[in-house]
Amino acid sequence: METPNLTLENVEKIEKLFPNCVKETEDEEGNKVKKIDFDLLRAELWDKASVEWLDERYRLDWPWKKRSILKANTPITKTLRPVKEDSVDWDNTQNIYIEGDNFEVLKILQESYLWKIKMIYIDPPYNTGNDFVYNDDFSEDSEEYKERTEQDVEWYKMVKNTESNGRFHSDWLSMMYERLKVARDLLSNEWCIFISIDDNELDNLRKICDEIFWENNFVGNFTVENNPKWRKNSHFLSVSSEYCVCFAKDKNQGGFIENIAKDVSSLKIDSNGNYYSPGKRVIVWESSNDVVSYESEKHFSVYYNSDNNDIKIIKEKEINECNKSLLDSWYKRYISSDWENFLENSYTQTEFINIYNNDWLLFKENSIYEKDFNLNTRIKSIITDMEYQAIRDGKEVTFKIDVKTETAWKELKKLGIPFDMSKNHLFIKLLISLFEKDWIVLDFFSGSATTAHSLLQYNAEYNKNSQFILVQLPENLDDNLKTVQGKAKTTVKNWIKLCDSLGKPHLLTEIWKERIRRAAKKIKEETNADIDYWFRVYRVDESCMKDVYYHPSEAKQENLALFTSNIKEDRTPEDLLTQVILNFWLTLDLPIEEKKIWNNKVFYVAWNSLIACFDENIDDNVIDEIAKDEPIKLVFRDACFKNDAQRINVENKVKRVSPETIIKVI
Ligand SMILES: C[S@@+](CC[C@H](N)C(=O)[O-])C[C@H]1O[C@@H](n2cnc3c(N)ncnc32)[C@H](O)[C@@H]1O
Prior knowledge:
The protein is built from 19 helices and 30 strands. 31% of the residues are buried. The chain is an alpha/beta fold. The strands form eight sheets. The protein has a ten-stranded mixed β-sheet, sandwiched between helices. Strands 26-27-28-29-30 form a five-stranded mixed β-sheet, with helices on both faces. Helix 4 (102-109) runs parallel beside helix 6, helix 11 crosses helix 12 (450-462) and helix 12 runs parallel beside helix 15 (508-527). Strand 28 (610-613), helix 18 and strand 29 form a beta-alpha-beta unit. S-adenosylmethionine is lined by residues 101-102, 123-125, 134, 422-423, 445, 447-448, 450, 471-473, 475.
């Protein structure tokens, strides 16, 4: 016989009274246990005499929040390595696909892309209890953490964040917080970040964004009806939508263009064949300034005869004194008033007559409106499917919004790629079309690369030149196969088959690079648009430099002989060039020309912005040739020179021809 566990019973009693004060967590053996949050319970039973609640303030806190802040601010020594064999049209494309952990990628890009990204769209794991998140081991101290982030061998191992995890929300919050904090620096002042999310973390996401981007910069939450057939997952309501949270970097500097085409059935057509709808009121009935002087340019009454489309303008002093003779001749009187006093019209008399002469006015019952020739209107905060005829470039075209997940997987199926969790590319295209100019769009949780597909489709349809940067973790599919179940298992098996058929390793990123290739080919065939369809691939790796480069004082005397070079042996000149580009805070889309000068390989990045040569023992003639091009920055490696004397000689030689050149030897 076992006596009842009284503690357990007591906890259950408290849970009934104060459910918020009891949290489910795991004990050391992994069993689920309930624990009381005594701080919260004390707050519930607050008694001024017994509780000092000194640390009370409005904010969202969670364990390891401070650690996230620290992590976001700590430098890392990783770099990117080009993967030319997976890239398409390397020399000409400006689109970038990066394989790696997005936190590291954001840190690596932080200086090169500072304030250069105009739009960030992300669709992070929603923390549904089934998501895989990167395995940040929070039990280690900061030294261990530093060691691991510099030397980790299982970097791409993801773990399932299940609700039984005692830090279920905290882990997710830390993961998002540190990434958003770095991402904010990349965003240019006039533009926005969009984050897809569902009910699981909407609330927490909004709070961390309020903190990182500031609540004044909150633009709005879009409600996206992506699942109109709804999920049968609730006893209360059928969830058919999710959200997209939008924050501006600086709300005072940005704004969306009107990107929703008007339904042609709501438009009228004038005698010049122009479509219009009723626009701004020019003779008003409220919300205008009082007329203080009857001589004001904005004070006048309008008499209009619809039979002959004639107007008469009169400056009147009494609101109730109409011009009887005009009224008797079938003129109608229009005034701006609040019924008792005259108000100012929207335009001056001269402007009004000009608009009238252009036939831009609509005379309605009580007011005069300006014709609105704008064929678009502003996006609404609820986004649902719609399809109708609209006018573009004078012609009727079909305008369609389709945000359904179902359409997305059908679309992917047509491309021969099995996946039913992708975002609809028309949804992201709609967000992209909120901005007018060409820009860089970054998606650092890019999954199936829908953002690339959307951007290419948008560029092709609207003749634009925007670029994408996508980041995705190269999850190991063989590892995934061991952990997933049910339908997901079949999907992963199909992905592995696809990788085999492409002759590629079993990595998730292989599937999504192929999606971009296939989507690009399809868009090219369908539109024949003259745009940049392709992309450069980069992969995150350890720095090209050996440890001794970063910590020379730590090198032991007996090991010095090992360091004939600062550079790791497996690194190619292209690897070195990429690291140098990033170290000089240049961007990854710049044109790179490879020249052969006197048998040496010399890289020209953006013409003479950066010239680099990493060959051993370079020829003096090469230096003369390079110097003539007056490089802004010139980079060599130690091994380029036979000895220090040659190195000094080379530097002097360059400086004589091109004194402004910044020379660096790595
Ligand atoms: C919800 S999915 C994005 C889906 C995507 N919008 C689409 O249309 O397919 C989130 C993606 O982020 C990736 N991911 C998760 N953690 C990551 C990390 N630390 N770095 C890079 N990618 C990560 C996951 O592998 C997953 O593919």
